Amino acid sequence: MTRLLPLALLVLTPMLAAPPAVLAADDASTAACTTTRSRSADRRIGYFRHCPDTPEMASFRGGRYAMGDSIGSGQPYERPVHEVTVAPFAIGRHEVTRGEYQACVDAGSCSEPSLPPAASEAGARHPVVGVSWTQAKAYVAWLRTRTGRAYRLPSEAEWEYAARAGTTASYNWNWGQVDKVTCGHANALDQSAKARHPELYWAIDCDDRFSQTAPVGSFPPNAWGVHDMQGNAWEWVEDCWHPDFTGAPTDGRAWLEPGSDGTCTKRVNRGGGWGNGSSSLRLSNRDADPLGNFSDGLGFRVALSLAKPKPAATAVAAPTAP
What we know:
By secondary structure, the protein is an alpha+beta fold. The protein has helices spanning 98-106, 133-147, 156-164, 178-181, 191-196, and strands spanning 29-30, 33-34, 36-39, 46-49, 57-60, 63-67, 82-86, 89-92, 234-240, 266-270, 286-290, 298-300, 303-305. The strands form 4 sheets. The protein has a 5-stranded antiparallel beta sheet, with helices on one face. A 4-stranded mixed beta sheet has the order 11-10-9-12. A two-stranded antiparallel ribbon has the order 1-2.
């Protein structure tokens, strides 16, 4: 399909060889690493990291939400709106960084990104971009080996659940003057990017100070403590592309072709990137690319299923979740 506002420098290459809550992720020790845990300042959201070189994860209890464009400002492929029930899971607090991806490259389990970073995007805290869906899958396979846990790409339903953080709006910020205020909340195609890429004429009328990718966490998190779900880099998810949500699963699982073993021709990506205007950053916006595609604005984040929390032996007051 054609993007509403296209990514910069898209390249086609042959395929390469409910509310947050603290949940018990797993045992404290795994694969010669010690799991570290923390909580948000308001104590509502639990974070964990299995190894020093693996992504920090945000835990979600799961729940029900309306997936798709309930505002009516989107495209037919963002509808029909449908209720989805999501099981407990964790998702990367940030997009996978260059440093985290490099650990997989150094281990011999991942290939180098297909696009070398510009000097201003080469830092370890920038999101890794220039990676295909196939390369993202190789990374999660390495994570499984590294941690002994069943890491994977998020489903599209999980991704939107985490991105929405309880809102039914199109953005996680006041969008009355969206082209003026977006730069305070997300890395989009702004005036800094336009100065570097004058051919990208659709830049919005604000300045976020980043001409391409920004280090992860440079912008405020959403209400559930997850950063850069809108902007910075598009993110691969597990699902095969379908032209709309007719017949989509309602249990939060990835929507694959019948009997799909990775052979569907396109996989979904979500969230918009630094090369897009604000309309591409809408929470219901979606796109897809062939498995071997990559660009300087396309990365990913990871997910992990979690067991349901065990009932407490005695009732203990807990902070109110959003």
